[in-house]
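Pipeline run #58 for the internal structure catalog. This entry was flagged by the ingest filter as a single-chain record with no existing model, so it goes straight to prediction. Upstream metadata was stripped on purpose; only the residue string is passed forward. Reviewer on rotation: M.T. Logging verbosity set to normal.
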Amino acid sequence: MKRNTQRRKAFTLVELLVVMAILSTVMGMSVTLMFSMFDFQQRYAEQSEQIRSTNRFVDQFRTDARLRYTLQLEPDDETLLQWDDGDRIITYSLTPGKFPEKRDIVRRVMQGDKLIGTEVYHLPDYAAVQCVMGQDANAGLLALSLWEQPPGANVFTSEELDPFTRSLRNPQPDSPNPVDAMYWRTVIVRITTPQETGGTP
């Protein structure tokens, strides 16, 4: 009687360790890829919300600018601008967000001592905001400018930036315009004052 001498096939310990190492590497790469995708999706959603919020802010600013209200720029340290018709007061304030790079615009509507409306607009990271009334040839115009000013960047003031030409007022000869390298959005509206229209509506 013949004895079956064929050996049973099996994996050695070294082969099992190699397979386990490969599987661990693949699982680690998959988890890293999943976290990267979630992070990208979160940042994309946040940036999209910032763009939509900025567009809503600009549209609301245009709407308020059409009102025949008295305008004050920076009436105090916390207020960017203020519209006043004697009955209602609309203020725009630039406030810090949840993180150091975040900036929010808060629009408040007051009627007497009563707060009747509040809206918050989330701006892009490191956003700077400036409102400038036009002079001379630009008299009667109001410019609202938004740009990115991260830490370490040049800090421009309203005396240096000309929003109507989107450039520096006194640039150095043959030097590139640093404003071109920044995110810049300027909205220019014509202001109709009560004195021009003969009274408030």
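catalog note: Residues 13-65 form the longest helix (53 residues).
catalog note: The radius of gyration is 29 Å.
status: ready for reviewer M.T.
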